[in-house]
Design brief:
mainly alpha
């Protein structure tokens, strides 16, 4: 699952649309759309802002989940 998909899934879990997440995170809706579509890779500081807006730990998107082999 891509980073953009993980962000979109969490946003949808919370019942937020892109405009609402943009308002909570002080980003633009266009930026949210580009991140969720994996068009742009956000900086670490942007990921922290998004994590907080999505009620996650600040480092939630900075580490990748690993599958058991």
């Amino acid at each position: 699952m891509t980073l953009g998909n993980r962000i979109r899934n969490r946003r949808e879990e919370l019942g937020l649309n892109q405009v609402e997440l943009a308002e909570k995170s002080k980003l633009t809706q266009a930026t949210i759309s580009r991140i969720e579509s994996d068009i742009i890779a956000p900086k670490a500081t942007t990921l922290i802002v998004l994590a907080i807006a999505l009620d996650l730990a600040p480092n939630a998107f900075l580490t990748e989940e690993r599958r058991a082999s």
